[in-house]
Design goal:
Layout (H helix, E strand, L loop, with lengths): L4 H14 L3 H10 L4 E9 L10 E5 L10 H12 L5 E4 L12 H8 L8 E3 L10 H6 L4 E2 L3 E7 L2 E8 L6 H8 L6 E5 L5 H6 L4 E4 L8 E2 L3 E2 L10 E5 L2 E5 L17 E9 L2
Parallel strand pairs: 1-14, 2-3, 3-4, 4-5, 7-8, 8-9, 9-13
Antiparallel strand pairs: 2-14, 6-7, 10-11, 12-13
């Protein structure tokens, strides 16, 4: 059975109302703030030996708003910085519904992020294409807005291909990725771009967008999860791997059930 977006949102709202008891109070007062640091290794096809062990920090779906405070974001940034990643990636949705009141505060909260090989960001569906990039750039965060950049790390080349949420066609992604080397990472807010990555033989995709389901109910599982190839964690299609983060913030209802917010530290490993 296919679940429509409208039905999913109704279910999510109903879930929020239906668990207003002990679980709902916990989900609101504690669950949405109970930050996890996820440390995991990802086998990457064709990864050069020199890049084995490269550690990428990932924060996504900040959704800075009245429900996601400066402290929430600052704690996530501090937790990630304590891990000393080699490279940091931001996966989009820094505010909710493009709210201009939080563009500056969200960027400011992320400003302490730093890594030896840089901090890179892409845009999500909630981000304004015009005001978010300069706000992030003000703090030295490079926004890949349908763009590619090449890094030299440990005498090896690695290409980051960053696309906006609205860039979906395989031909457009192929154009942006043209000229990239065999070690390429697609930064795509929506994990459904795994299909295009597999077609283009891009070995790794980093995504968010799903919030891990945000409300994960017993038996039912993650609400509205059916349309995504991976809701959270690691998945594969052919020779392409993907990691989908549960993200930091919330949307629709300010709670998380069985789905804590996370920052991720991903260690790249050679496949096979």
């Amino acid at each position: 059975m296919t679940i429509t977006r409208r039905a999913a949102l109704k279910t999510l709202a109903a879930s929020g109302l239906g668990i207003v008891g002990g679980t709902g109070v916990y989900a609101y007062t504690y669950g949405r703030h109970a930050l996890d640091v996820t440390r995991t290794s990802i086998p990457v096809a064709g990864l050069p030996r020199g890049l084995h062990g490269l550690r990428i920090g990932l924060i996504t779906d900040v959704h800075r708003s009245r429900w996601v405070s400066h402290e929430d974001v600052a704690n996530a940034v501090m937790a990630l910085m304590a891990e000393h990643p080699d490279l940091v990636v931001l996966g989009g949705d820094y505010v909710t519904w493009g709210d201009p009141d939080y563009v500056g505060p969200s960027s400011e909260a992320l400003s302490p992020l730093a890594a030896p090989h840089g901090v890179f960001a892409i845009l999500g569906n909630h981000d304004n294409d015009h005001d978010m990039p300069p706000a992030l750039a003000r703090y030295g965060i490079q926004v890949l807005r349908d763009a590619r950049t090449r890094l030299s790390i440990r005498n090896e080349s690695i290409d980051l291909v960053g696309i906006r949420f609205w860039t979906k066609r395989g031909s457009d992604i192929a154009r942006i990725a043209r000229g990239s080397g065999p070690t390429t990472i697609l930064l795509a807010h929506d994990p459904r771009r795994l299909a295009e990555a597999a077609e283009l033989s891009i070995p790794l995709v980093l995504s968010g967008h799903t919030h891990g389901g945000q409300v994960v109910l017993p038996v039912i599982g993650a609400v509205a999860a059916q349309k995504f190839p991976v809701v959270s964690g690691i998945g594969r299609r052919g020779s392409s791997a993907i990691f989908v983060s549960r993200g930091l913030g919330t949307i629709y209802v300010p709670m998380r059930v069985n789905c804590p917010p996370e920052v991720a530290v991903l260690t790249l490993e050679s496949l096979g």
